[in-house]
## 1
Amino acid sequence: MSRGRLYIVRNPLFPTLFKIGFTTKFSVEDRGLNDSNIPEAFEVLREFECDDVKKTETLFHETFEIYRYYSQLDHRGKKTEFFVSACLRKAIAWMDKLKGLTDITEEIEEEFEQKAEAEEKKNTNLYDKSKVFSKRPMFNFSEMGIPIGAFLEFVSDSQIKVKVINSRQVKFKNKIQFLSSLTARLLKAKRGRVRPTPYWKYEGKTLSVIYNETHRLSDFS
């Protein structure tokens, strides 16, 4: 039995497919999905802590075999870890009900944002280890006074807007997603997530400013 992380990812270059896999490394990014020459980064849709990742992945592959994508690179058809997007909702629902799995998607988003913030501060003259690594409140639209249904505007292109769906997610082109992964795609970043707060604004203020005002923090506190 090997404990690890089971993940569902998708790449914008393959909109009709998604990939499920596992890693025993610290994070999905450490798995190296974006280290190849694929021009666009993978977006992490869901991530689970799993008691036995290999067994669970095998069970998923067996259950959803009819949806598996076979590459036509040779005459036999090469089996892949990609599945057609038509079964994506069914796959997520199946995993949500499975015993031995804990959905940590939101926790990973928060963890990533804190790491990104720490790295950002590290590159400034105001770097202070005692402050950078202190735990800050989770990014939350409701707590920041941004209501469900509000629209956020991309700083570098005012034509790009997203709609706030809940306290953590937005809708863009009829797709509900986390802001950090969407921002990474818009910026064409190599990694699958980017700290989003400097790149979006609400009612004329960036989310960084609103977050800091909400929690009474200066930009580099």
## 2
Amino acid sequence: MAALTGDGAYDRVGVYAAVHERHAEAAVVVPPRADAVLSETATTAPTQRDRYIQVIAETGRMAWQRSNGYNQRARVEGQIGCWKQVLGPALRFHTDQAQATEIAIGAAVLNRMLDLVRPNSVRVA
């Protein structure tokens, strides 16, 4: 399933409309602002955002994040932060082929570093 996942800055009517215009089946996984209110058509034809607001009101924000896979966004941001800290904030090469090679080497380096520090745990009993 296609989806756009973003932080609360993307909680705008224009974002939902632009995604729906380009990919009608795509989900917009954006947490509504804390002061978000339901639209006028929430009772008759609720929008995706209206449903998010209702679920958050009923189950809480953390439950909404788990049910929508929003926590995956935080994991991806953490990986990007790790990449930037170890390999730098930008790609150094300009052509697509050179950038693809640079990314492949960078990913191999990070994976090797993670393998070196990951503990090898075994169950004793």
